[in-house]
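Support request, please re-run this one:
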Amino acid sequence: MDTLLEADISEAGYEFGDPKIKEVNLAIRPGKLTGLIGANGAGKSTVLKTILGIIPYAEASVRFKAGCEQYAYIPEHPVFYENLTLWEHLDLAAAVYGMGQYELELEGERLLRRFRMTEVRHHLPGGFSKGMRQKMMLMIGFLNRPDIYIIDEPFIGLDPRAMKDFLSLLEEERQRGAGILMSTHMLDTAERICDDFVLISEGRIAARGTLGEIRSAAAMPEASLIDCFDVLAE
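Re-run finished. Output below.
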């Protein structure tokens, strides 16, 4: 299968001589959702930041498929401007993406309805709850429907309804052919929605593949992803 993005990371970290991850390679494929899983401090966010090119030190190669250089990054912690409203954040993102006003209105209104944020479109995010800020980040990420999504711990702060809306939107994007790399601690949800997994332990890949392949690596043919994780991440 063609890949939208391939990353080969020899090592990377936050200062030279102190790598946090080593020998990590992965690919984002059309219509597929890859779950990047691991314990706190295992190196998941470092992997994502290396792919994005925002890590201070990295020996890595990141290759995009021709014509698929545009991607959306949804960070774990919401980032916003205190003096811009929700709609102004969408307007700013649309300008960065090169979207026209009609397209912004169409997609922006769709996402406001989808995440039930229409009534606060002209409110400042400083007054939002953590979940509402996270929904704003999701809306910005999905605004221009790119071919690649890189998502870091998206479920933090989302209530059950918002989580359902997010998962539904993810599935629509997969059906459209977008590729998704998602870091998450929620292994029960990951087991249900991901096509395959990359398990990071102490900065290296401990296991990878489909759920069946992860089970084989753990020698636990009927186990859940959580149980396999306990064995493979030791």
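The radius of gyration is 18 Å. The beta strands are 5-13, 19-28, 33-37, 57-64, 71-74, 148-152, 179-183, 196-201, 204-209.
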